Each structure stands twice: as structure tokens, then as C-alpha cells.
Amino acid sequence: MLLLIQYTLIFASVLALVALGGCFSEHSGVINIGLEGIMVMGALGGALAMKFVPAGVPAIVMFLLVVLASLLMGVLFSLLLGVAAINFNADQTLVGTALNLMGTAAAVVIVRAINVAENPDNVSSTIVYRKAKQVFLVNIGDFEFNWFMLVAVVAVIAAYVVLYKTRFGLRLMACGENPQAANSVGIDVFKMRWAGVLISGMLGGLGGIAYITAGSSWTFENGVAGYGFLALAVMIFGQWKPHRIALAALLFGFFRSLGSVYSGIPLLASMNIPSTVYNLLPYIISLIVLAFSSKNSMAPKAEGIPYDKSTR
Hints:
Layout: H1 2-28, H2 35-52, H3 59-87, H4 92-118, E1 126-128, H5 132-136, E2 137-140, E3 143-146, H6 147-165, H7 167-177, H8 179-184, H9 189-212, E4 217-219, H10 227-237, H11 242-261, H12 266-270, H13 275-293
Antiparallel strand pairs: 1-4, 2-3
Helix pairs in contact: 1-6, 1-7, 1-9, 1-10, 1-11, 2-3, 2-4, 2-9, 2-10, 3-4, 3-9, 6-7, 6-11, 7-9, 10-11, 10-13, 11-13
């Protein structure tokens, strides 16, 4: 049971961070379908930091460097969405889909180039970093605490405060509801939308590195196993509200954790259900959730609609 709680919390932490990123972007009026690609690039930035930062660096410094690298990669990659969707009014869904394809492909190319430069016979897309457990994981008795669990809690609280208790957050949400009205009272809609996209890139990149910290290596051909899309489902199920997103992330994290620990639960093990079924559970649940929750969607009214100053 302790292992189930542990896995639920870490999977929920990843989903919450990425879903909050999507929440900020969509509240500004920009649909970010590209969270999967942003996660991959964030994971790449953090993995490269863990690989190349010397082992003798203090754990706290390593943690900050890895987090900074992930945030930076997520932000840089989200710039593509911002330029295409905000500056050039491109179709946001198509741009996000392209980012998802590009993210994994670019990560594979970069990692293979690094591996070949180190060893011409190594053409794999795997980065090996043996410092992750020393930096991110702390054993509290039999419980393996991951610092990203705490980061996710702080992010949820901060997102709630920023969106509902600050002028910036209220202006951001105004741009996602009615950008023309927001502009009429002096709010720069373009700046607000850029802010939403960049915050989305930061949190998406952070979710990417949180996803891969449980091991000592990662193969980038695998991407992040659809977690960006699961995060979108979490965001929709949570109705674009940080506290509800946190609860939805726990639900999805619980079903995802069953695929990792079901063999240690006597009741589930005795049912002899293939592990593939448990691994599919979160994706099946996401389809069911979206089918029933889409009718009562509280999505920002102007999300996905390019902003044109000349329209009223």
C-alpha cells in the first residue's frame, strides 16, 4: 500500500505540473496541445544537466541546475508555439501537434549526436545519468520521497494565488474570456498571451524532468508515454481550476500507479489481469472522463481564437 501511495503521488505530481502549464496557456487564450513535446524537451534539458554537471557538486546545487535547465528548455521550445499562434495567428491545434512530433524527434537527434561524439559505436538515444536518485529522492523509512512532490504542491498553491488573487492572473484570464474587452481597458492581450505560453513552457519542462527522475537513464525514443495528453485530460477534468486539477491529477495518478504496483497487491495479483490492461487504465479513464465532462466544459471562451485588434 505504501508503494501504491508513493507511485500515485509522483505520477500525480508530473500530471499536475504539466496540467497547470496548460491551464495558464489556455486561460490566456492559447490552446497548448504541444505539452507532450515540451515535456520531452524539458526532460532533455534536465537529463543533460545531470549528465554533464560534475558529480562533486552539492545536491542542492545540482537540483537547482537541473530544474533551471528543464525550465529553460521548456520555455525555449514553447517560443515556437508563441510565435506561430500569437504573432502569426496559426492554427493552434496544428502547431501543438507539430511541436509534439518535433520534440521527440529533436531530442532523439540531439542525444544520438552526443552519444556518437563520445563513442562512434553508440547510436542509441539513451542518456545515462547516475545522479538522479541522489538529487531528487529521499528515503523516509520505507517511503521514497521525491522532491517534485513538494514542487507540485507549491505549484498548485502558487497557481491558485496567481490566477485568482493577483492583478496579473485576473488580467490573464480576462484575455482568455474576452480579449477585446480586456484590450478596451488597457490590457495588452499579446503580452498576456505570451506570458501564458511561457509559463506553460516552464511548467511543462518541469513536468518532463519530474517524469524521468525515478531512474538513472532515459531513452528518448520513448518520449514521455503520452503524459502530455493525459495532462490535458487532467486539466479539462479539473475545469481549468488549480485545486480541481490537483484532485484530478491524484485520480489519474492512482490509476497509472496500478500498472507499476499491481503485482504487490494480493487481490489484484490473484485476478491474473495482464499488466498491459493496468498500463492502459489511465488512457481509458481519460477517454471516459472527456466524454462525460465535455458537455459541462468551463473552458475559457476565447481559447484557440487568434486575437485581432481590429475586431470588436
